[in-house]
Design brief:
Largest sheet: 7 strands, mixed
Distance between the termini: 62 Å
Low-confidence stretches: none
Oligomer: single chain
Order of helices and strands: EEEEEHHEHEEEEHEHEHHEHEH
Helix content: 25-40%
Bound molecules: zinc ion
Number of domains: 1
Shape: globular
Number of helices: 9
Structural class: alpha/beta
CATH architecture: 4-Layer Sandwich
Length: 309
């Protein structure tokens, strides 16, 4: 017998929740790095999967190693491949420490890797795309921590002006009349590691179409452990999901020791089958692949239908 080769590194988690792709890795204590390619953003950089290089922004939730371990590599590889400096978004409370880490690499490498840092405090936002904002909200973890909501900003003509000719509207506008309402549509909320609490019930989070969150503990007798580590337990998830308006909840940060089949059973037990249908485990490759194949098949059928003479 010769020694066996090492296990192959796991595949990335992948979900297509139209119009967004949610992809990356998220395993408690190992690495979390979840990218939304449509939004040019990657939440956390615990490791740096190749695909994450394409993200222009990296929004950090907190400084634990499993969330920042790949950050220096991300900055370096983006630079190396001529993709321009990455922009790190983080809580103002950890800015100096993030800089300190990256400066440490600069010193070791005897070269300067460019990066930009934008800090956000609770409620502050930054534009990441046309009409798309990333807004921060405080979360509760064992170190300074932040969640984010991606909001789409739209303007809608006020009801009283609907149907007026363009010329008339232009005239009103020139006279300084506000003819539109500004609306915000929360698309995706990302909590990072956190305890449950009122911060998960603010309108931005509660109304987001997709919530990406963590659930580190599933066993009924692990509630205390969840509290100590300031993480979510499946019962917290159940209670929370009942009062959110999300269409989908994507759950990461499940421990490698947790059997996903068992976790799914515990999820159903905690929230009932109907609510549990909204929940996806990012790293449940088998279920997610099966779901994707159905999506593919449906798209193929639709296309065939549309191409019929
Ligand atoms: Zn973590
Ligand atoms: Zn953490």
């Amino acid at each position: 017998m010769i020694p066996r080769p090492p296990p192959r590194d796991g595949a990335l988690g992948y979900l297509y929740l139209p119009p967004y792709r949610i992809q990356g890795v998220s395993i408690a204590g190992e690495a979390t790095s979840i990218q939304i390619p449509e939004m040019d953003v990657c939440f956390d950089m615990g490791s740096c999967p190749r695909s994450a290089l394409a993200a222009k922004f990296c929004a950090l939730t907190h400084g634990h190693m499993d969330h920042v371990g790949g950050l220096a590599y991300w900055c370096s590889q983006r630079n190396f491949q001529g993709m321009g400096p990455g922009t790190i978004i983080c809580d103002a409370r950890i800015e100096d420490d993030v800089r300190g880490m990256l400066d440490g690499y600069n010193a070791l490498e005897r070269q300067r890797t460019p990066y930009e840092i934008k800090t956000l405090s609770d409620g502050e936002e930054i534009q990441i795309k046309n009409n798309i904002m990333l807004r921060a909200f405080r979360t509760e973890h064992t170190c300074p921590s932040t969640g984010y909501v991606i909001l789409e900003k739209r303007t809608k003509l006020k009801e009283e002006y609907v149907g007026l000719p363009q010329e008339k509207l232009r005239e009103l506008k020139q006279r300084g009349t506000e003819i539109v309402n500004h609306i915000e549509i929360p698309q995706i909320a990302f909590t990072g590691d956190t305890l449950p609490g009122p911060h998960l019930l603010n309108d931005d989070v509660r109304k987001a179409k997709i919530i990406i969150t963590e659930c580190t503990f599933f066993e009924p007798d692990h509630k205390k452990r969840a509290k100590v580590g300031m993480h979510m337990h499946v019962d917290d998830l159940a209670e929370w999901l009942r009062v959110t308006e999300c269409e989908h909840m994507v759950v990461g940060h499940i421990s490698r020791r947790t059997h996903l089949g068992v976790a799914r059973k515990q999820l159903i037990e905690a929230m009932g089958n109907e609510l549990a249908q909204k929940v996806f485990f990012l790293m449940d490759h088998r279920s997610n692949r099966a779901r994707y194949e159905i999506q593919e098949e449906e798209a193929r059928k639709l296309e065939a239908e549309q191409n019929k003479p």
